[in-house]
Write a structure and sequence with these properties.
It is built from seven helices and no strands. The chain has about 160 residues and is mainly α. About 20% of the residues are buried.
């Protein structure tokens, strides 16, 4: 029995170390980025980067009218945010800032667009959890943030 416990402790030590945590944070970054990137792709004309669709403008005027911003401005801000912040997350650059921005977007969506408990417990709580993990733990070792941190530390030394 002690051999099994010893192996279990070794396994959990490996998984909870810096490498295991960094892999989990990388997966979390990609998962959260994927949610918002797919949303970005629905807002722009196919084959373009920033040509916002008429449907997007319509949705912000009608369906998302609870957002306390002018609808055209909100459509642009949401589209550009859903473009930029997922890219930052994938590269692990300014990860905590990108996570905080997407957390803010999630809360706006929850409170001003889809304010039902079904949306909160169905999906938004998961987005909040992923953003909170990235804000609190950072991007992990597999990131540009970590690379820049190491370069800055080496330069300071």
């Amino acid at each position: 029995m002690s051999g099994l416990i010893s192996q279990w402790n070794r396994l959990t030590g490996l998984l909870s170390g810096k490498v295991g945590e960094s892999i989990a944070l990388l997966i979390t970054r990609f998962a959260l980025a994927g949610v918002f990137w797919r949303s970005y792709k629905t807002k722009v004309e196919e084959g373009s980067w920033f040509d916002i669709t008429d449907t997007t403008y319509f949705l912000f005027q009608e369906e998302y009218s609870g957002v306390p911003l002018p609808s055209d401005f909100a459509a642009h801000m949401a589209t550009y945010s859903e473009f930029l912040f997922p890219i930052l997350l994938v590269f692990g650059l300014f990860t905590r800032f990108a996570g905080a921005a997407l957390l803010g977007m999630t809360l706006v969506i929850q409170f001003f667009v889809y304010s039902t408990a079904d949306h909160w417990w169905g999906v938004h709580i998961i987005w909040v959890a992923m953003a909170a993990i990235l804000i609190s733990r950072g991007p992990g070792l597999i990131s540009l943030d970590a690379l820049l941190g190491r370069a800055t530390a080496a330069k300071a030394a």
